[in-house]
C-alpha cells in the first residue's frame, strides 16, 4: 500500500510538473518611429499608418510604430541619414533626394518609362531587389514604389519643348533635372515641401509634380498651366534601421518581412494613385481656372 501511494505521489509530481511547464515567453514589445515628410493631409500618411497598424496586429501588439509626418523629425533630404543614425527607425525616402546614393533607382525615373504606378511599382520593386545591398548601404530595404505618372506644371502656358528654354524649373529628382537642362532650362533644387515658396517668390517658374499633390502642397494656386502627359515618375523607398531590425525576435522579423514585399509596393502605389488622379480631374474641370494642354 505504501509502495502504491509512493508511486501515485511520484506520478502526481510528474503530471504537475508537466502542467506547470513554462509557456514560451512573449516577444518583447518594441516601439519604432516612422518618419516622413509629406503633410498629414496627404493620402500617403494614411497609407503608412495603415501599414504600421497591420504590423501591430500581426505582431500581436509587440511591434508598435508611431508615424511622424511633415518633417517633424527632420528635413526631407535627410531621411536616409536619419535611419542610419537611429533618429528614425523607419522612413519614407525619395530616392532622388539622395545625392550619390541609390543610383540604380534612377532607371525607373527616366522619362516615359512608366504609365501605371501600381504595376510599375511592383515591377520596379522586384527588379531592384538584387541591387539593394550595394545601392542602399547601411539600411534595410523594405520596399520601393512610385507615385502616379506626373508632368510639368507652370505659371505660364507651355505648348512646345522650345518654350522651356530659359525657364527656371524645380525638378523632382536628378534625372528630371538633366532632362530639363537638356531643353535649355535652369533647375532649382528644393524638396517638395519647399517648392511652393520657391514658386511664390519667383525662384522657380515651373515644377515637375504629380497632380493631386499640387493640391496637397497648395501649389495649385500658383501653377495654372499643366501638360496632360505621363512624363515621368519619382521613386521612393521604405527603409528600416538595420540594428533595430536585427534586434527583433525571429517571429517579429517574419512579421516585418511579410510587410516588406512587392505586393505591399503595389498596394501603396495603388492607394496613392486614386488621390493623384482626382487632382488631375479637378484641374481639368470647368470653373477651376486651369489650362490643361494635351
Number of helices: 11
Number of strands: 11
Query: Kindly, what is the distance between the CA atoms of the first and last residues, rounded to a whole number of angstroms?
Result: 101 Å
Low-pLDDT segments: 1-24
**The biggest beta sheet, please?**
6 strands, mixed
Helix/strand-derived category reads alpha/beta
Strand order of the largest sheet: 7-6-8-5-9-11
Q: H/E order of the elements?
A: HEHEHEHHEEEHEHEHEEHHHE
| Average of pLDDT | 92
Radius of gyration using CA atoms only: 25 Å
The helical percent reads 40-55%
What would you call the shape?
Answer: elongated
Itemize the secondary structure elements and their pairings.
Elements: H1 2-19, E1 30-35, H2 43-58, E2 63-68, H3 79-85, E3 90-94, H4 117-128, H5 132-135, E4 139-146, E5 151-154, E6 168-170, H6 174-182, E7 186-187, H7 192-200, E8 206-209, H8 211-216, E9 225-227, E10 235-241, H9 242-246, H10 250-258, H11 262-284, E11 291-293
Parallel strand pairs: 1-2, 1-3, 6-7, 6-8, 9-11
Antiparallel strand pairs: 3-10, 4-10, 5-8, 5-9
Helix pairs in contact: 2-11, 4-11
Amino acid at each position: 500500500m505504501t509502495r502504491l501511494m509512493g508511486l501515485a505521489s511520484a506520478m502526481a509530481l510528474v503530471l504537475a510538473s508537466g502542467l506547470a511547464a513554462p509557456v514560451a515567453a512573449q516577444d518583447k514589445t518594441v516601439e519604432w518611429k516612422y518618419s516622413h515628410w509629406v503633410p498629414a493631409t496627404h493620402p500617403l500618411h494614411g497609407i503608412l499608418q495603415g501599414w504600421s497598424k497591420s504590423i501591430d496586429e500581426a505582431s500581436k501588439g509587440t511591434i508598435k510604430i508611431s508615424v511622424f509626418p511633415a518633417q517633424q523629425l527632420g528635413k526631407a533630404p535627410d531621411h536616409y541619414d536619419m535611419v542610419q543614425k537611429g533618429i528614425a527607425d523607419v522612413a519614407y525616402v525619395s530616392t532622388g533626394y539622395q545625392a550619390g546614393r541609390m543610383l540604380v533607382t534612377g532607371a525607373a525615373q527616366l522619362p516615359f518609362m512608366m504609365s501605371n504606378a501600381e504595376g510599375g511599382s511592383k515591377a520596379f520593386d522586384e527588379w531592384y531587389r538584387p541591387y539593394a545591398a550595394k545601392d542602399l548601404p547601411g539600411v534595410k530595404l523594405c520596399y520601393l514604389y512610385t507615385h502616379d505618372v506626373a508632368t510639368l506644371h507652370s505659371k505660364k502656358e507651355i505648348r512646345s519643348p522650345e518654350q522651356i528654354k530659359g525657364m527656371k524649373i524645380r525638378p523632382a529628382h536628378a534625372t528630371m533635372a538633366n532632362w530639363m537642362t537638356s531643353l535649355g532650362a535652369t533647375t532649382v533644387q528644393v524638396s517638395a515641401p519647399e517648392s511652393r515658396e520657391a514658386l511664390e517668390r519667383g525662384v522657380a517658374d515651373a515644377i515637375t509634380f504629380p497632380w493631386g499633390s499640387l493640391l496637397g502642397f497648395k501649389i495649385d494656386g500658383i501653377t495654372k498651366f499643366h501638360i496632360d502627359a505621363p512624363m515621368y515618375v519619382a521613386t521612393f523607398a521604405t527603409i528600416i534601421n538595420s540594428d533595430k531590425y536585427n534586434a527583433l525576435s525571429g517571429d517579429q522579423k517574419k512579421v516585418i518581412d511579410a510587410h516588406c514585399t512587392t505586393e505591399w509596393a503595389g498596394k501603396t502605389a495603388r492607394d496613392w494613385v486614386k488621390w493623384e488622379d482626382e487632382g488631375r480631374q479637378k484641374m481639368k474641370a470647368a470653373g477651376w481656372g486651369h489650362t490643361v494642354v494635351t
